[in-house]
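User: Could you check the structure of this?
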Amino acid sequence: MTEFTLSLGSNVGDKAENLRRAIERFGTEPDISIITVSPFYRSAPWGKTDQDWFVNACAIGRTRLSPLELLGRCQRIEADQGRVRGVRWGPRVIDVDILIYGDVELETETLTLPHRRLFDRAFVLVPLAAIDSTRVIKGRRVADALAALPDGGADVERMDHMPAMVLETAIALNPMEERP
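Assistant: Sure, the predicted structure tokens are below.
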């Protein structure tokens, strides 16, 4: 089984609930188990700034799927929650990105691993540092990459919405170790 890390974000509707639903859905997927979920964070939009604020989180899981199969599951979960791809970096009900897939480095038309903008985004590094600050990705510790950002992630605020119940539900729904 391979460990992977996801970044999740939403800025349409009930943002925190959209993240909870996606995380719980991953917990029902065959060949995927969620190990831990970061706290939820509020952040300003990135790239296209004339839109509502986001709720972001990261999740670490394990899978038997290939990177491209995992990407397909992410995209199916997004579509099932109403994600419509349109404006780049525009508003979205849910966005799920694969940040890391084991130690795999990959570049295809549809997937780059590790995620190509991972080290540029406080809304990714802050939640990731909350659950895996010592992780080394392409020679950089997550905590060091966060500290190197111009504002050190100061514009990313932790929210009161704690996903502990979401994680327990995801694990209960999909205890992958018990599957054949």
